[in-house]
Amino acid sequence: MEWKDSYDIGVEKIDCQHRQLLVKLNEFFDACTNQKGKEKIEETLKFLKDYTLEHFGNEEQLMSEIDFPELAEHQKTHAEFVKTVLELEESIKTKGVSVLSTIKLNRTLTDWLINHIHKCDRLIGDCIAAKGNKAV
Ligand SMILES: [Fe+2]
């Protein structure tokens, strides 16, 4: 998947982190295409645990700084993503890596880019723009 300009929210730090996620996502997709998904999944999940901690923290802080109206809702979506990552990790620990777990992560990440970053995170950029960029 390629980065589209429309994914940018206009806040450099956040956009950089989103691009970083896309790099990891593509690495994982490539591994899946080359039948190496099972080997890559643990590494990807480990990355996601650290990444989400920092990135969601930054995004939520930004949202509170600009009095983003849907902060609570947005936070909930972040928490659900973290939960999915932790559940996948737990299932791998107890049952081992399965094709199903790689498909699940594949779908989760694609959905996150298309629906969360492209739609929900964009609203943060829109909110900043509406306030005349005064908040950042
Ligand atoms: Fe977000």
Describe the protein.
The chain has 136 residues and is mostly helical. It is built from 4 helices and no strands. Helix 3 (71-95) packs antiparallel against helix 4 (99-130). The chain binds fe (ii) ion. Fe (ii) ion is lined by residues 59, 74, 78, 116, 120-121.
- Provide a count of the helices: 4
Spans of 5+ residues with little confidence (pLDDT < 50)? none
CATH class value: Mainly Alpha
Percent of residues in beta strands: under 5%
Ligand list:
fe (ii) ion
In CATH, the homologous superfamily goes by the name: Hemerythrin-like
Would you report the number of β strands?
0
CATH topology: Four Helix Bundle (Hemerythrin (Met), subunit A)
Radius of gyration: 16 Å
- Succession of helices and strands: HHHH
Looking at this protein, list some descriptive labels.
binds fe (ii) ion, 136 residues, mainly alpha, Four Helix Bundle (Hemerythrin (Met), subunit A)
